Amino acid sequence: MKHYGRVHCIGIGGIHVGAIAKLLAARGVDVSGSDVVEHDLVREMRAKGFRIAVGHAAENLPEGAEAVVYSHAATDDNPELVEARRRGIPVVDTHAFLALLFEEKDQMIVTGTHGKSTTTSMLGSALIAAGANPTVVVGTKVSSFEDGNVHVGSEDLLVAEGDEYRRHVLSYSPKVLVITNIEFDHPDAFENEDAYIGMFGEALSTVRDGGAVLYNTDDPTSARIIREANDSLAARNVRLIGVGMNDGGARFDEPRVEMGRWISELRIPGFDPITLRSRIPGEMNIRNAAMAAAAALSITGAGKSKEVEQAIAEFPGCWRRFEQIGLFQGAEVISDYGHHPTEISETLKAAKATYPDKRLVLCFQPHHRNRTRGLFDEFVPAFDLADVVLMSEIYDVPGRESAEDANISSSQLIDAIQKRDADFSRTRHVQFVGALTQTESALRSNVREGDILIMMGAGTIDGLARQIVSETAERVQLKWTV
């Protein structure tokens, strides 16, 4: 791993920048940082001893800094970036920096539209259990990792997410590339669907000679780009490992639900069968588990099947990925990061199968006006399985909104959902609740004891979810104290 003495991190409270800061600090690097506001992740980093300035200013950049790492949320006119360039200090985005740290080392990179964080976390956990001791960097937090969003292991093996946004995945040169699925997203960063899909085709060319690609055979787009690249991959001795229910070298059975757990059998030629037991609901999470197990075994060998099976069974889940966080008015509260139409529909499908006799209340905060506009028609049917839909206003992503999107509102989505319900003669409560600050009163009016309340979105809705759960816990504690 490339070594530094002092590094400054812009956006250190961000989940990915924070992970890199923790990794550097664990390697003895002097790390400083800044973030735009004081929030929970900033406070968490500060509690670990990091020097963090709130607000961006040129004077935040310390003398002797050898590199500046920045989040993609930082704009070109960020005063710390401007000052670093003035001083001639290298400035590198988080993914390019991580790739640089592990240049010429073994990299296992997980990319795709959905499931990257969960698959990466499962893969890292499986390799840890198998004794491979990887360094794992994820875009979420895992309770079984001491540092949450990073597991500091070997300097010779990296397991990380390869984000497709702004083509970050192309920064890496993986020994193993995992493609979970491909479905158009990030319309603000890709001019059209072909450009988005084409980027994954480019990612295949970054795989090292003699490496491996694991892909989802049940996803037509993933299968297509593999077919198109087959000859060039074969010429470089890159192994192809298909993972799916219907086809591929690694096949898993249709999942079943037993006592709240999702279960399937995974069969890979030359390996003992593995029973996949997932604490996280949904066919998508069984698929994530199958991808992770197959990827882990592709480098550990056949002797580690039992360790991989146990790691998957014990995997605790990720922060904000169907995370059960407590109760509100007698309803089970689940926080979920889903923000794409497919993620909404698949999460609701998983919840219905796991809790067939429960009423599903979905409180959704859309993420990014451009995404809402670009995928509007896909969003409308995504809510079909919810018994109640409460929708707050769209979360504006700093630096990613444009003037042409300014008039897009969640209220338009609600109107379209209500029209769809009328067309299908369906009666349910569907409501635009306005700003997130107005959402709590709508929850109090609509949530009943015994409901499953899913608080979903990639913005600030998780904070509200934890607030209402915390307040409920405090009231219960007070009742018993009295």
CATH architecture of the largest domain: 3-Layer(aba) Sandwich
Question: Which structural class best describes the helix and strand composition?
Answer: alpha/beta
Percent of sequence in beta strands: 15-25%
Look up the CATH topology of the largest domain: UDP-N-acetylmuramoyl-L-alanine:D-glutamate ligase
- Provide the gyration radius in Å: 22 Å
What's the N-to-C terminus distance? 57 Å
Helix content: 25-40%
Q: Sheet bearing the most strands, described? A: 11 strands, mixed
Could you tell me the mean pLDDT? 92
Helix tally equals 15
Total domain units: 3
By DSSP, the count of extended strands is 22
CATH class of the largest domain: Alpha Beta
User: Spans with pLDDT under 50 lasting ≥5 residues?
Assistant: 475-482
The H-level CATH homologous superfamily of the largest domain, spelled out, is Mur-like, catalytic domain
Shape: globular
